[in-house]
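Justification of computing resources. Each target in the renewal requires a structure prediction run like the one illustrated here; the chain below, 82 residues long, is used simply to show the kind of job we budget for.
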Amino acid sequence: MAPEARAAGLLDAATHLLMLARALVQARRPLDLEGLDTLVGRACAACLDLPPQQGRALRPRVAALLAELDALGEAIARGARA
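Resulting structure tokens:
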């Protein structure tokens, strides 16, 4: 697999995992985030290994990952207040 495709796949996988986690929180289901840091770390490392132009091309995916992480944090905070 090409390095850019691998990085994109890891970013997409992490984003989808965060979306699933947020859905679980919103449904008041148990949530286990073990391993999330490993997946996100691998995605970030894969992006950093790319030449700058290819890395910049993945910025929208990185932004989507960060937005989903923020949304999960807010959902968890709302659940803690309820």
